[in-house]
Task: structure prediction
Amino acid sequence: MSVKGKLIEHAESVFRRQGFNGASVQDITSAAGVPKGSFYNHFKSKQELASEIVRRYGNATDFSMLKREGSAHERLRAHFAAQAERTSSTGVEFGCLLVTMASETPTAGVEVGSAVRDSITAWAAALAEVIRQGQQAGEFRSEASAEDLATFLIDAFEGGALRGKATGDATASMRSLDLALDALAR
Result:
């Protein structure tokens, strides 16, 4: 694997465990097993690497459950269950990378903030399409826009994930999501 590949492979874990501000270039290069000086041959800054990590994380989101057969409610729940498993498999105590980076956006810089916003926007758009289908089928309330409801589900899920991060409760995000889905139902 290339030095750049090693940096990318290990940086997500370092950022999730230590946060953007808590992670140094030395921490990242040590985790990757590469000399510190090699970092700047591949990235102009920690912000550039963090932005790439956030984009990769967002692009790796599994949306396949949203395209399956079944009710909108079932598809949304399956999608979020996969997201919860993704976080649990790498340590619920460290939370979701998007939550970690979003909480540090004011000090992490414009590049990182933009990557977080783009990832959340793409996620909300995918959810909104399913919610719109559920509204048309009479499964979900239609008083609010599908876009607002999509961000509401993300907020509930990620808020639960943040609580789970603080308490070590691997079920917090799904319990919050289930309450939010119930609130959407007719």
